[in-house]
Amino acid sequence: MSAPLIDAIIKAENTEQRQVAADALAAFAKSEGLVKTVAIIDSLNPLLENKKSVPHREGALLALGSLANTFGQAGEPFLIPQMPKVFELYSDKMVVVREAASVASKAIMSLPTRYAVRLLLPVIFHAIKESKWHSKIGALDILSGLTFSAPQQISAALSDIIPIVSETMWDSKPEVRDQATKTITDCFNVVGNPDLISSIPYLVGCINRPEEAAECIHQLAATTFVTTVEEPTLAI
Question: What b-and-e string marks burial along 15-35, b requiring 16 or more CB atoms within 10 Å of the CB?
Fold first, then answer.
């Protein structure tokens, strides 16, 4: 019964109409329950992979975003596995598809409980390390968002996050470097150690510009740590 609704998404004349059709599909899926929704998502996968049709790719992404908004956290188990495909479409040649990928990823990544964040990080890391530059920026932006929605979980994972994001700060694309710098700054800020706050610009600058390492060491040496130094601070 979902086929006509998916067909309506594909045949919509523009993004606005396609979004309306995607919302209708999500409402139908909600009425049918989780089991049938999994089948609906399976039917969206060929659309995501259709290299020849922009409406197919954009429509599938809008549908995933609508499903995330409609189901909320109940949709986490069947929507999170779609993230590798969504990250890949951040690098689509068509702007409307890239924009739809951004909308879908932010909707899906808003679903996980804070306990699931650690399981999501490998998906984000893979996109940062292996994807094209648009996808890297998207993954870095999502990681920045998690520093606000799940700061404790990001703080606990800094020893894994810092090496990967630091390497991206040397990317050949200036847009990637800029986003990586913002992301690592956001990650450093979750530590919450008041003694370290004033040194964060030096630490970020040291990664971007190794010639500033001496100044960074001098700044840290002059810091008196009153607050207990725990693992996240040591990771930095």
Answer: beebbebbbbbbebbbeeeee
Query: pLDDT category, 8, cuts 50, 70, 90?
Result: very high
Which residue type sits at 59? G
For residue 124, CA distances in Å to 3, 22, 58 come to: 31, 26, 21
Mean predicted confidence (pLDDT) in 57-70? 97
Task: Give the largest Cα separation in the chain, rounded.
Answer: 68
Within 10 Å of residue 63's Cβ, how many Cβ atoms?
A: 31
Q: How many helices (H) and strands (E) does the chain have?
A: 15, 0
User: Is this prediction's pTM over 0.70?
Assistant: yes
| CB hemisphere CA count around 79 (13 angstroms) | 30
Residue 1 neighbours by CB distance under 10 Å: 8
DSSP calls for 62-128: HHHHHHHHHHGGGGHHHHGGGHHHHHHGGG-SSHHHHHHHHHHHHHHHTSS-GGGHHHHHHHHHHHH
Q: What is the pLDDT of residues 72-122, one digit of tens each?
A: 988 888 899 999 999 999 999 999 999 999 999 999 988 877 777 887 899
Q: Report the length, in residues, of the chain.
A: 236
